[in-house]
Amino acid sequence: MKRARIVVTLAALAATLSWFAPAPAGAAAAQTPQDNDQTLRAMRDEMARSKTRLELEIPGTNEPVKPYYVEYRLLDLDVKEIVAESGALMSSTHNRNRFMDVEARVGTYKLDSSNFIGEEGFRGFIGSTGSVGIDRDYDSLRQDLWIATDQAFKEAIDTYSRKQAYLSSLARQSEIDDFSKADPVHVIDPLVSPDWTGRNWEQEARESSATLRAFPDVYESRVTYYLVYATEYLMTSEGTEIRTNRTFAAVEAGMNTLARDGMPLNHLYSAYAPKPGELPNVDAVRRGLNVAGSELMALRAAEPAQDYTGPVLFEARAAAPLLAQILGPAMNGARPPISFQPIVEQMLGNLGGRSDWSGRIGARVLPPNVSLIDDPSAKDFHGAPLIGSYPVDDEGVRAQKVEVVENGTLKELLMSRRPGNDPGGSNGHGRSGFLTDAKPTMSNLFFTSTDEVSAVELKKKFLDECRAEKLQYCVIVREMDNPSLSLLHQEDFSELLASYGGGAGTGDRLPLLVYKVYPVDGREEVIRGARIIGVTSRSLRNLAGIGNDNYVYNYMQSQIAGFAGTALGAFGSAQSGLPASVVAPSLLFEELEVRGARGEPKRLPLLPAPSLSAAK
Q: Which of 1, 225, 300, 325 has the fewest CB atoms in 10 Å of its CB?
C-alpha cells in the first residue's frame, strides 16, 4: 500500500467520492453480480481471516485482544476534470485511482477505541488509508488489506488504552454507547464501465467560459467541469457487503473584481447533476454565467452597505442556502469526539459544531406551522432533480426518511452509528466523503409550512412592516455566498476565515446579493459588502412570514477537516463535498442585524482592462 502517495492524492481529490447518485444499469456496459470480481473476493477472504485469526497477546492479560469490529472500504474512481478561463482551456485531466480504508475497533459497542482526541491530537476515526493498484489484482489487494488491517488493529489497541486512561481520570463518564448495532446489509450492484463519449466536455468548457469575455472588468474567472464514475465497496465483520456504482457531475464557476474604492467583490455559478449527461447544456451554462457576470458588475457600481437593524426578507433563492447553513449542524444527533484538550471543545463551539437541538426531543424548535423532513429516497421536486439521494449510507445502513420536525416540535435528529444524547440508533444518515469518518448529514431536506402565502403577499407584508416602523429602507437578500466557489485563491479564503470563522458559530452569514428597498415607492438598490449577524436556529422560531415559492437548492456539504458538521459545512465544492438538496420558500424575519462593509480596500490596477473579443 503506497502510503506516501495518498497525502498528495487525497488533497487533490479531497472528499467527494462516496456520495454519487447510483448509476442505472443501462447507463453503461453492465455485468451481472456473478462477475468474478477479484476485489470482492480479496476483501471477503481477508475479512474472514481477520475475523477468525486476528488477535494480540498482551502480557499481564488473561485473554488475547481481538477486534470486535473490522471494516473495509474501497473506492474505484474514474474522474475527469476540465478547467477553462475566458474561452481558453487551462487543463483537462482524466485519472483512474483506487483507494481503501481499514478500520478496526477494540473494546465493545458500549466503549471502544473510536472517537477520541488525545494529547497527541486526533485519533480513532479512521484506520489505515492508502492507494491500491488499479488492476483489481487479487494478490496485490490481499497484501494491502493484510498490512492495513494489522496497522489499524495495533493503532486501535493503543488508542483504546489511552482513552480508558483518560476516562478513568474523569469524575463522571458518559453512559452513552460508542457504537450502535446495525443489521447486515447485502447489496451487490452490477459493475459498470465509464462512458465519456456523450459530449465534448472540453469544447463545452471553452464555450461556456468565453461568456465572461463580455465583462472586461471581471478581473479573474474560472469554469470547472467535474465528472465522476465510481464503484464503492463496503465490507464489515458484522456481515455487511456492499458494492454500488455512483456517478456525479458538476459545473462550478467563480469570478472576481474590485469596486472603484478597492473593495474585493466575488460571484459564482454552479450546477449539479446525478449523471454527467444530465448537466445543463452549454447554452444554459452560458445564460447562468451571463447573469452572474451582470450581477457582479452591478455590485461593482453599487454603494457599500451601511449598518441596519429591521425586517429582512430572504427570497427563496437565498432562504434555501441560509437554511442549509443553519440546519446542517442543528440536525446532527451524534456526540462530538471525546477530547483530552479543552481547546477542541472551544473550536467546535466557535465554528458551530455543536447541535442546538441535541437533547431537546419534544421541544418546540420552529414555528408551530413548520415541518422538516429529510428524505434520501427523493429523486426530484416537481421535476427539478435532487442530488442528495442514496439507498444505503456510508456505514452500511439503509437510508430512511426522517421527520425531523413536525408542526414546530422536534421529533428526531439525523443519526449515524455514533449514538448521541437522544435515544435511538442510526437512521441511515451516516454519510462521509472520501474515506472520512461518517457523520449525521442531511440528504434532501424539505422545509414546509401549513401557513404560507404567495411571494407577492409576503413582500407586501414585508413593506407594510417597514412602513409601520417608519424605516427609510429595508433589506432583501436574493442570494447567499459560497466562498469555496466564489473565491479563486487560497489566501483570499484564509483571509475570509480569519475575519468570519469565529462568528460562524454565533450566526454570522455571508449574503451575496443584498438590496435596499424603499417602502415609499418600492424602489430597489443593490448594495455591497453586507454581512448578517446572529442568525441561528433560534432565529427561525419566530418567523414573521413564509412564502409558497419553493426553490430547489442543490449544493455541496464540505468534508474538509474542521468544516464538516459545522456552520461552515455548507461551503463545499464538487472536490470537497457531499451532495445535498434543500427545498424551501421565501422567509421573512421581523428583525435582523445587517452589518455594513468592513475591511481594507485593495489597490486598483494601474491600467484599464484590455478590450476582449466577444464570445462566438
A: 300
